[in-house]
Automatic annotation (TrEMBL):
<dbReference type="GO" id="GO:0003995">
    <property type="term" value="F:acyl-CoA dehydrogenase activity"/>
</dbReference>
<feature type="domain" description="Acyl-CoA oxidase/dehydrogenase middle">
    <location>
        <begin position="131"/>
        <end position="216"/>
    </location>
</feature>
<keyword id="KW-0285">Flavoprotein</keyword>
<dbReference type="Pfam" id="PF02770">
    <property type="entry name" value="Acyl-CoA_dh_M"/>
</dbReference>
<dbReference type="InterPro" id="IPR050741">
    <property type="entry name" value="Acyl-CoA_dehydrogenase"/>
</dbReference>
<dbReference type="Pfam" id="PF08028">
    <property type="entry name" value="Acyl-CoA_dh_2"/>
</dbReference>
<keyword id="KW-0560">Oxidoreductase</keyword>
<dbReference type="GO" id="GO:0033539">
    <property type="term" value="P:fatty acid beta-oxidation using acyl-CoA dehydrogenase"/>
</dbReference>
<dbReference type="GO" id="GO:0050660">
    <property type="term" value="F:flavin adenine dinucleotide binding"/>
</dbReference>
<feature type="domain" description="Acyl-CoA dehydrogenase C-terminal">
    <location>
        <begin position="240"/>
        <end position="380"/>
    </location>
</feature>
<protein>
    <submittedName>
        <fullName>Alkylation response protein AidB-like acyl-CoA dehydrogenase</fullName>
    </submittedName>
</protein>
<dbReference type="GO" id="GO:0005737">
    <property type="term" value="C:cytoplasm"/>
</dbReference>
<dbReference type="InterPro" id="IPR006091">
    <property type="entry name" value="Acyl-CoA_Oxase/DH_mid-dom"/>
</dbReference>
<dbReference type="InterPro" id="IPR013107">
    <property type="entry name" value="Acyl-CoA_DH_C"/>
</dbReference>
<dbReference type="InterPro" id="IPR046373">
    <property type="entry name" value="Acyl-CoA_Oxase/DH_mid-dom_sf"/>
</dbReference>
<dbReference type="InterPro" id="IPR009100">
    <property type="entry name" value="AcylCoA_DH/oxidase_NM_dom_sf"/>
</dbReference>
<dbReference type="GO" id="GO:0016712">
    <property type="term" value="F:oxidoreductase activity, acting on paired donors, with incorporation or reduction of molecular oxygen, reduced flavin or flavoprotein as one donor, and incorporation of one atom of oxygen"/>
</dbReference>
């Protein structure tokens, strides 16, 4: 059955169900063992392999390159469906789809063609930006140096989501001039160690742990000539998280309905001889399902804004200022979605237990994974800043386009803030 037939709403395009049809059986297979993988800490390497074999990682490429030419709303609708199956898998592929956008928007034609060809060949990319510890805010501890005529990268990354499953690690580093550069590190190269040491209570299977880079030699084509990323990068990466949350809510709604439908025991103070006929229980089920429906709709609305930002980059009728305005608005639309989607999904994954008895807390049911995953996803990029930025725009007309980053403020940065 299609999403429309199940009451989740039509897809973002007329062709969407045809686009999704080859992947839905794979999503179903992935979901079958999601609880078991979570309980046993079995990484979804095989499941990601199924998606690669089905060309899911090429979705945004043109059909002649093995892709589907998927629009951003179509991509995000599929990511919601994938997150119903297992949000760990969506998060593991987040960096790859973001890198694909980088490739589309690169001004370096030779570099762009090289990486389009590699993505078309089925190669995938994992994350290597973040660092733990005392790295300076706005900079990196990882270094990139030229030795004996070749580039060499050294350092340690954390939150390297998806890299354990990927062919390449998209890693940032500081070069000899003090500039942050972006590199593509072969995941299997000598000196690369990718470690599954992420110990979060949610999103346990994304391999979002440590990657160590010890004197790793890089081909010149693996060092990007520019650190400029695609204009809507912040909104894109944030919206992947929101799509994941929407998928978690839908998965929770499906699980809850199944548990209520099969539940035999009732409470004496209840309102029926079965949970399935108790109006108060049905109210909870309806609330959770309505949240799942609404959050997906919000995500697809924001995905349309990102599509406009993508299209603006190639619209010759727009000048630079007009192009930037469309792109900044896309960031605003995503920010306007963040706290609402997050709050709703955290509510849904909490109140679902109100429709069930104490047995719902059994680990074997896996219902707790929905809240754990949602709470963890919600912590990656603090939502508390988004409402402030939206309010700033509403009052002043200024859109905050500050790129996210984490680190320890330098003395110079502290002095500048104090002086201000």
């Amino acid at each position: 059955m299609t999403n429309f037939q199940q009451g989740w709403g039509a897809g973002p395009s007329q062709r969407y169900d045809a686009l999704a049809a080859p992947f839905r059986p794979i999503f179903a297979r992935i979901r079958e063992q999601a609880i078991a993988r979570d309980l046993d800490h079995t990484l979804p390497a095989e499941e990601i392999g199924w998606l690669r074999a089905a060309d899911f990682t090429k979705l945004r490429l043109a059909p002649e390159l093995g892709g589907q030419g998927a629009t951003l709303p179509e991509l995000f609708a599929l990511l919601i469906e994938l997150s119903v199956a297992d949000p760990n898998v969506t998060n593991a592929l987040r960096a790859h789809f973001g890198f694909t956008e980088d490739v589309f928007h690169s001004d370096d034609e030779a570099w762009r063609q090289l990486w389009i060809d590699r993505i078309a060949a089925g190669q995938t990319v994992g994350s290597g930006y973040s660092e733990a510890g005392a790295n300076p805010l706005g900079s990196q501890s990882t270094t990139l140096r030229q030795r004996d005529g070749q580039w060499v990268i050294d350092g340690e990354k954390y939150y390297t989501t998806g890299s354990l499953f990927a062919d390449w690690v998209h890693a940032s580093a500081v070069d000899e001039n003090g500039d942050v550069r972006l590199t593509l590190v072969p995941a299997g190269a000598a000196g690369v160690a990718i470690i599954d040491d992420w110990d979060g209570f949610g999103q346990r299977l994304t391999a979002s742990g440590t990657t160590r880079l010890d004197n790793v030699a890089l081909d010149p084509s693996s060092v990007r000539s520019s650190q400029v990323r695609f204009a809507y990068a912040t909104g894109f990466y944030q919206l992947v998280h929101l799509a994941t949350l929407a998928g978690i809510a839908r998965s929770a709604a499906i699980d809850l309905a199944e548990h209520v439908a099969s539940r035999k025991r009732v409470y004496a103070r209840g309102n029926g001889l079965s949970a399935a006929t108790d109006p108060q229980i049905l109210q909870v089920v309806g609330r959770v399902r309505s949240i799942a429906y609404t959050t997906a709709a919000i995500v697809l609305q924001a995905a349309g804004a990102l599509q406009r930002a993508h299209d603006a980059a190639f619209d010759d009728s727009l000048d630079e200022e007009g192009r930037k305005f469309v792109q900044d608005l896309s960031e605003l639309e995503v920010s306007q979605s963040v706290t609402v989607v997050t709050d709703l999904v955290l509510e849904a994954t909490t109140i679902l237990f109100d429709a069930l008895g104490a047995s719902a807390a059994k680990r074997s049911h896996g219902l707790d994974r929905h809240w754990r995953n949602a709470r963890t996803i919600s912590s990656h990029n603090p939502r508390v800043y988004h409402d402030r930025n939206v309010g700033q725009y509403a009052v002043t007309g200024i859109i905050d386009t500050t790129r996210p980053g984490v680190g320890v403020p330098t003395d110079e940065q502290k002095t500048a803030v104090s002086a201000h």
